[in-house]
């Protein structure tokens, strides 16, 4: 193979392959900082994550529309792409991780209050650090669990074998 030959490159998905992906984690960061910031900022982080989820679902719908052209069943294929992406992202990027980080932080703050004599600001900052450090460890298990959940339920309804990539 000639070293000057280029391999065909996969199209970059702005919502999965760039920094934009991190917007989906905004609510986890918000939950980690809940003890330190006004609750309105936490809700704002959910707004950012929800906007990301919605934009990704719309993007996948547009891509499905282009891919299926004027073929019969185009509307159904587009709807499946949008619903599958939105449900997957809502569960895997917003609902489950937000709840998980919220509970980790709440438990951490409670346990630090019961087991240490640290001042409240130190306990709150420690709780935030614990919440932030938990994020990388929960992503893959949650993604796999949501894949399993959708494969076992919603994806059987439209029986396409299509799934979130």
TrEMBL record:
<dbReference type="Pfam" id="PF10558">
    <property type="entry name" value="MTP18"/>
</dbReference>
<dbReference type="GO" id="GO:0000266">
    <property type="term" value="P:mitochondrial fission"/>
</dbReference>
<dbReference type="InterPro" id="IPR019560">
    <property type="entry name" value="Mitochondrial_18_kDa_protein"/>
</dbReference>
<dbReference type="GO" id="GO:0005739">
    <property type="term" value="C:mitochondrion"/>
</dbReference>
<comment type="similarity">
    <text>Belongs to the MTFP1 family.</text>
</comment>
<protein>
    <recommendedName>
        <fullName>Mitochondrial fission process protein 1</fullName>
    </recommendedName>
</protein>
């Amino acid at each position: 193979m000639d070293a000057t030959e280029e391999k065909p490159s996969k199209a970059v998905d702005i919502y999965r392959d760039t920094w934009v992906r991190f917007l989906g984690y905004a609510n986890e960061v918000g939950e980690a900082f809940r003890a330190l910031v006004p609750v309105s900022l936490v809700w704002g982080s959910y707004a950012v994550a929800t906007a990301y989820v919605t934009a990704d679902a719309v993007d996948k719908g547009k891509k499905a529309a282009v891919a299926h052209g004027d073929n019969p069943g185009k509307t159904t294929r587009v709807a499946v792409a949008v619903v599958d992406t939105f449900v997957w992202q809502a569960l895997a990027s917003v609902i489950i991780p937000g709840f998980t980080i919220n509970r980790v932080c709440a438990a951490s703050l409670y346990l630090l209050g019961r087991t240490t004599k640290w001042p409240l600001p130190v306990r709150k900052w420690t709780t935030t650090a614990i919440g932030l450090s938990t994020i990388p460890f929960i992503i893959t298990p949650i993604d796999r669990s949501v894949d399993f959940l959708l494969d076992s339920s919603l994806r059987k309804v439209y029986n396409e074998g299509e799934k979130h990539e």
